[in-house]
Design brief:
The protein has one domain (2-240): outer membrane lipoprotein receptor (LolB), chain A (Clam). Helix 1 (2-18) runs antiparallel to helix 2. The radius of gyration is 18 Å and the shape is globular. It is of the alpha+beta class. Strands 6-5-4-3-2-1-13-12-11-10-9-8-7 form a 13-stranded antiparallel β-sheet, with helices on one face. It contains 4 helices and 13 strands. A hairpin with a 2-residue loop joins strand 12 (212-222) and strand 13 (225-236).
């Protein structure tokens, strides 16, 4: 089935490329996204990602490489809870971040504080990127403006790109493997510690979770420097999430 869907994406992209549509035409971008949505499971299955938990293990590089394990509880794009444990066994530090709309809190070492307005905006932009990565927003009319962008290579393989803009949101570029149709990269301009940087999010080793194709490996880079590399990711789709999950810790 996955091979058949990948073939459908290849055929769809070939038809778009052969149609002599201008490179920045929204129809080109929409055709790429529609084919990718099918490859990732289709609108009905992608709807499961509206509520999702994601657990990961890997290496975080904040000055030095340290092992981490984290868990996200997600109701994107406005509500999420992130538990982040970092360090070797027996010496782990724990950070908890909660964002609930226009409010956010950070808890560490037994102390909880409200997140500053500037930092909260950065975190909300990260949640927006995560939301787009599920492709769920593109199964509905959500006010996006689409355009295709120049092809590139990701991990040595050709990829086709779509630029996504939305009022009040950062401009984002999504790239899909030309052969498989799977999402392999997102890129955008961002602010980290009040500095403008180019951020990249790399998605690898997709597997099926209840019919949804999602990455089991992931890397996040800022200005070309790797910040996070998850080497083992799993997902679940709860039917509901208790509102207390997104309350002040």
């Amino acid at each position: 089935m996955c091979r058949m869907l990948a073939l459908m994406f290849t055929i769809a992209y070939s038809l778009v490329a052969a149609a002599e549509i201008p490179a920045d035409d929204a129809r080109t971008a929409k055709a790429i996204l529609d084919a990718a949505i099918t490859v990732h499971g289709g609108p009905e299955r992608l709807a499961k990602t509206d509520r999702m938990t994601r657990q990961a293990k890997g290496i975080a590089s904040f000055g030095q490489d340290l092992p981490f394990a984290d868990e996200w509880v997600l109701q994107l794009p406005e509500r999420w809870r992130w538990t982040f444990n970092i360090g070797p066994s027996g010496q782990q530090g724990r950070l908890l971040l909660v964002v609930n709309g226009d409010k956010g809190w950070q808890s560490s070492n037994g102390t909880t504080a409200e997140i500053s307005k500037e930092r909260l905006e950065e975190l909300r932009e990260e949640a927006y990127v995560m939301w787009l990565s599920t492709l769920l927003p593109f199964t509905k009319e959500n006010g996006f403006t689409l355009a295709s962008v120049a092809d590139t290579e990701v991990d040595g393989r050709p990829a086709v790109g779509v630029k996504v803009t939305h009022a009040g949101r950062p401009e984002v570029r999504l790239y899909f493997d030309r052969q498989s149709g799977l999402l392999v990269k997102i890129a955008r301009r961002a602010r980290e510690a009040n500095l403008a940087v180019e951020k990249e999010y790399l998605y690898r080793a997709h597997k099926g979770f209840e019919g949804v194709q999602l990455p089991t490996k992931y890397a996040e880079l800022a200005a070309g420097k790797k910040l996070i590399e998850a080497i083992e990711i799993s997902y679940q789709f709860p039917r509901s999430v208790d509102d207390k999950t997104f309350a002040r810790p």
